[in-house]
Amino acid sequence: MLFNRNSFATVMNSNRSVVKDNKGFTLIEAAIVLGIVALVIGGIWVGAASVQENFRASKAEQQVLQIASQARKFFYGSRTASGLDTDAAINYKMVPADMVVGSGTNLSLVTPWDGAVTVEVDSSDNRQFVITYNDIPAGACASISARMSVTGVDTGLQDISINGASAWSHGTNGALPTPLSPITAATSCGTTTTATADVEWTFKIN
């Protein structure tokens, strides 16, 4: 049997090519793949965080409306809201159970962001009561306040104050109030990503 050197060389070169091709990713290729994976994971994380924040904002809005509704039912037909405070709101089940923290007689209320919540009679008009949410993230503060100026009109909502200043008022003489614009709400709540705000919702009892 004759040995063909050319054939042998061709086979060896082919094998070297296969071995070279099977070495795997180069460092550059690996870096590109890792970069793409990081972008995908980052996008998922940002999306999940946004969904979570929207959920908390929606939950906070529903909490406020539920507290207001239960308090107004409790004081229905009464001339004043005298005696209403955070403890009374807890004891008479005016608040959602998942807002209550503590044990025994040491109970308090928290927002979906773990800020403090208080319920009290309006110091300037005892026919009204105030629900205060402390340390709400600026973005959530703006979205809740703008929506509440629309959805809260038929719930007895009279005023929305942000960081101690009135941002929206129901108005008088039966006229429909002008909704709080998102831009005005955002300006009142804070324009930085780390800003927080204290929001007060004032409701009438009847």
Please tag this protein with its features.
45% helix, 206 residues, seven-stranded antiparallel beta sheet, elongated, 5 helices, alpha+beta
Briefly say what this structure is.
The protein has helices spanning 5-21, 27-74, 86-91, 138-151, 182-189, and strands spanning 100-103, 106-110, 116-121, 128-137, 157-162, 165-169, 196-204.
Q: What is the topological layout?
A:
Layout: H1 5-21, H2 27-74, H3 86-91, E1 100-103, E2 106-110, E3 116-121, E4 128-137, H4 138-151, E5 157-162, E6 165-169, H5 182-189, E7 196-204
Antiparallel strand pairs: 1-2, 2-3, 3-4, 4-7, 5-6, 5-7
Helix pairs in contact: 2-4, 4-5
Structural summary, described in words:
The chain is of the alpha+beta class and 206 residues long. Helices cover 45% and strands 22% of the residues. The chain has helices at 5-21, 27-74, 86-91, 138-151, 182-189, and strands at residues 100-103, 106-110, 116-121, 128-137, 157-162, 165-169, 196-204. A seven-stranded antiparallel sheet has the order 1-2-3-4-7-5-6. Helix 2 (27-74) packs across helix 4 (138-151) and helix 4 (138-151) crosses helix 5. The protein is elongated. The mean pLDDT is 85.
